[in-house]
Design goal:
about 25% strand; mainly beta; globular
Length: about 290
């Protein structure tokens, strides 16, 4: 089951992916489980010196000189470690977050005529999801003929957020969902859900989803079970576009020095969801 159309994904068979553990029903094979696998690109951010023509996290953005820089109106800012008086209604430029070029990440659902995804972050806690806000810009990089040299910086950021410029050392894998993502009729087929001591939570026979920044894949739900993120523009169920986390555990190869990257101090991920019918429809940000 794909989260969004996969373009150019270099799939290998499940049997070749030694890092993937297939869920079982207390050791019994689940005949339909591979229908729920999704491709994922683990980004493995590592400190570097990226430029505006690179894919990166926290580096300079390729932005046209004559185009207004994205700003947050502050209407949903929350004081958290700052104060409500400091942040409520504070208009501030977004911070440059990620740049992802099609040449590096063809898996992304680029709208026709675009080859660059730019993710901007407001690094102040927002009340609607208790984390940073995000804006997505899909553009054709070749149309930026006069780039903005001096880029705006946020007026204020919450002390819990920090991003050091990083490059990526990506690896491509596949993920199974948390069992809470499955329809009730499929959960009813699983024997472990009928056991008297089953109360939800982690189950030995069902692999968890690790903490790592990634494109695609499934969501690591922590404070809720998900399954409700419908697109307000067309009603299609939104899917995870990317996740950003400062924990970066379960790395499957050595990527060198760990990045100086923090998104909330709770070892949570900032998850961005988009509509698979049109990635330019309204996005959803969830901190889990």
């Amino acid at each position: 089951m794909q989260g969004f159309p996969i373009r150019g994904y270099p799939c290998v068979s499940l049997g070749e992916q030694t890092l993937i553990t297939r869920p079982t029903d207390n050791g019994r094979e689940i005949p339909w489980i591979d229908d729920w696998v999704r491709p994922v690109v683990r980004l493995h951010p590592t400190p570097g010196r990226p430029g505006p023509t690179d894919s990166h996290l926290g580096g300079p953005m390729l932005w046209p000189r004559d185009e207004p820089w994205p700003t947050c109106d502050g209407s949903t800012h929350d004081g958290f470690l700052l104060t409500d008086e400091e942040v409520r209604g504070l208009v501030t430029p977004f911070a440059g977050g990620l740049q992802l070029y099609r040449r590096d990440f063809p898996e992304l659902p680029f709208p026709d005529g675009t080859d660059l995804l730019q993710v901007f972050l407001c690094l102040i806690v927002h009340t609607d999801h208790y984390g940073p806000d995000a804006r997505l810009v899909w553009r054709a990089a070749g149309e930026v003929t006069e780039p903005l040299a001096e880029q705006p910086a946020p007026v204020l950021t919450d002390p819990v957020y920090a991003i050091e410029p990083c490059v990526f050392v990506p690896c491509r894998r596949q993920e199974y969902p948390m069992y809470s993502e499955l329809p009730f009729e499929l959960l009813d087929e699983l024997e472990f859900t009928k056991e008297p001591d089953f109360r939800g939570g982690s189950v030995d026979c069902w692999p968890g989803i690790g903490d790592y920044s990634k494109i695609g894949g499934w969501t690591r739900w922590y404070s809720s079970d998900g399954g409700w993120e419908a697109c307000p523009d067309c009603g299609t169920k939104r899917v995870q576009l990317l996740a950003l986390t400062s924990n970066e555990n379960e790395c499957d190869h050595d990527v060198g020095e760990r990045p100086q990257l923090s998104f909330d101090g709770r070892d949570s991920a900032v998850n961005v969801f988009v509509c698979p019918a049109d990635a330019r429809h309204a996005l959803l940000v969830e901190v889990q």
